[in-house]
Design a protein that fits this description.
The chain is of the alpha+beta class. It contains five helices and six strands. The chain has helices at about 5, 25-40, 125, 135-140, 155-170; strands at about 10-20, 20-25, 40-55, 55-70, 75-90, 95-110. It has a six-stranded mixed sheet. It is globular and about 55 Å long. The termini are far apart. The relative contact order is 0.17.
């Protein structure tokens, strides 16, 4: 992974909020590096990107699918999480960089990578978590993590409205 190059995309005071952590860009990069080398790499497939610019500030949103292949319950599973990555970007000293990153969770699925695989998460097991990222949260818990269940998601439209309202206010529109 190109960790140093990723770091150059963010301002020093950047703040990241995703399912597995909230903190600085340096904490995010260190945590990501650890996850990739010890647990399971998460590949992010980025599709359409929208930008709303006002002066030296911009809101950027990317339609993204996070794909993870990992071992779970003695099987190899594929996790696919559909999100919108929501960024605030700011031009400082003539240079555009990212200031925040938030995830808006839409839906996810997780299944065995094999047609005769043994992994299966029950509805009861998944019902403990948010419907928009229940599979991701279950995987994080099984790997010893503590996912944040209070993030923006389509199952809670008011959470998305709050994020958009705060971003619009920050943008000055």
């Amino acid at each position: 992974m190109l960790w140093e190059q990723l770091r150059t995309c963010y301002h020093d005071d950047a703040h990241i909020v995703v399912s597995w952590m909230e903190g600085t860009i340096d904490e995010f990069i260190e945590g990501s590096r650890h996850l990739v080398t010890t647990k399971a790499p998460a590949k992010h497939k980025i599709f359409d990107t929208l930008v709303w610019k006002h002066g030296s500030r911009a809101i950027v949103e990317c339609i993204t699918t996070i794909q993870i292949r990992c071992e779970l319950d003695k099987d190899l599973v594929d996790l696919s999480t559909h999100t919108r990555l929501h960024y605030r970007a700011e031009k400082r000293n003539g240079v555009w960089k990212l200031l925040t990153m938030d995830a808006i969770y839409e839906k996810d699925t997780m299944k065995s990578a094999f047609t005769d695989g043994t992994f299966s998460a029950s509805r009861e097991e998944l019902s403990q978590y948010r419907s928009t990222y229940a599979n991701m949260m279950l995987r994080q818990v099984k790997y010893g993590g503590h996912p944040n269940g209070e993030l923006a998601g389509e199952d809670r439209p008011e959470s998305i409205a709050r994020l958009y309202e705060a971003s619009s206010k920050w943008l000055g529109v």
